[in-house]
Each structure stands twice: as C-alpha cells, then as structure tokens.
C-alpha cells in the first residue's frame, strides 16, 4: 500500500511539473525574443513585380549588390547599405507601400539574379555584401529624428548638387559638398557625345541653326552644373535637357560642328548629383573614412539611428 501511495504521489507531481518544463523550454515568439534582446525592427519590403515580400535586411542586400560595385571598399558598401535602408523605409512608408525595382527608385537584385550575375563568385561576393549589411543592420539616417530622403548617385563632377538646384526644394541635409578623387576610379567620369543636328532638333522640338548655337548660353549654378540653357527663342532647365538628350549629368558643354552638322556634348559625372556620390564614397573609404563618416560628409547634420523593436517607428510589430 505504501509503494502504491508513493507511486501515486510521483505521478501527481509529474502531472503538475511537466507542463511547466515544456513552457520553460518552448521558444518565445520572435517579436518577444527580439524585444528582450534589444533587436531591430523586422520590417518587410514589397518589391514591384516580385511575388513575395523580403525581410528588410535581405532587401538591402539586393540593393547594395545592384547599386554598388562589389570590388568597392567595405566601408563604402556599409555606407550604401545605410543609404539603401533609409531610402527604402522612407519611400515605402516603413513597408506599407511597394517600391520599384529599377532606377526610378533604387535597383534591386534577387538572390537568383545575384547568382546569375556573379556566377562562380557568388558565395564570395554574397559574403562580402552580407557582412556590410549585418554591420549596419537596423540602422537608418535621420535628420531631427525624421527619416531622410537618402538620395544617391554614381559619380560627381567634384561637387554634389543641392536639392534646391535639382528640384526647387531646399533640404537642409542635401547641400553641395566637395567630392574629390572620383576621376581616377571610374571610366564614366567623362563622356563625349556626337548628336546629328536632325536628332537634336527632334529631341528638343525646335529647328536649330548655326546662329542659335552661336548665341547659346549655359547658365551654371554653384556646383558647376547647367541650371539653364538659353538661346534665341529657347530656354530650358539643365535637368530637362539632360532627360531629353539622355545625358549622363547636367554638367555639360556644347559645341556645334557646322561642317558635319553635329552637336558635340561633353559631360562630367554620372547621375543627378544629389546626396551621396557612390564613387565619392569609395574615394573617401580608400582615404580611411568609416561608413558613418562618409554618411556625415554627404548628408549634413544627420545622425545614424537604430530602429529597435520597441521604438515608436516600429509600426508593424504587434
């Protein structure tokens, strides 16, 4: 009888304690676990034309791989990751809206595209990109606690452009800064264009002759880019000329070859010129600057902030 009582007591104790052991050992929900560990906010980004959304950091990997040469210095890649993450969260309103996959937003490569592009170098390159993204995970660029418009472009003409000159809106952190050392790093720093006069006239919607080129004025702004192009009966913004003619930048010079009826256009730099120059970031990284210092150089008076799971910005967390 005593043995039966002991066995019964053990059975009752097991019934009581075993569920507690299961609860204790069961893994916590990801959000709760991340909060306890002080992790960053798990946003998801929806890319137009791609079936499933991506975790924010996976999306950033795809942008860095597409937007910046893999041979670049790790600090330049980190700076690109910071800009790409910031741009994505602002553009998508923290994951609410989809984002384009091309240059109308920022270029993004899926893992399958990265494998195709890199071939045998995929694992090595993926490891390098992954390291840059992990080093900056959850970090964004803010100005007075607001997510900035982290514009970036390929190559400057030695200076970046102001947001005021580009769009007419003055943005305190998007001012013109020096961006030296790029010419030696890229073959696209300068380009020579030869456009037949007929094609020029078709693009601009007006019949030019030699006298119009003789009176042509290129009115430049403080960054050396063409703000306005003016001649007899014609006036357009430099940005519009760039778009109409498919030029690499708004830092251009124009001459007319009367003998061959050719318009000769020389451009310097590549891109709109506002924000971070990618080749400028590489030049600064080669000089020993860190990613944070590169960001501070191109986005004035900004800070780098980590969006933690319990921050107000983490809107998608239960």
UniProtKB/TrEMBL annotation:
Superkingdom of this protein's organism: Bacteria
One GO CC term on file: outer membrane-bounded periplasmic space
Species: Sporosarcina pasteurii
Sporulation stage II protein D amidase enhancer LytB N-terminal domain: residues covered: 55-143
Pfam families: SpoIID (PF08486)
Protein name: H-34
Stored InterPro entries: Bact_Sporulation_Assoc, SpoIID/LytB, SpoIID/LytB_N, Spore_II_D_firmicutes
GO terms, biological process: sporulation resulting in formation of a cellular spore
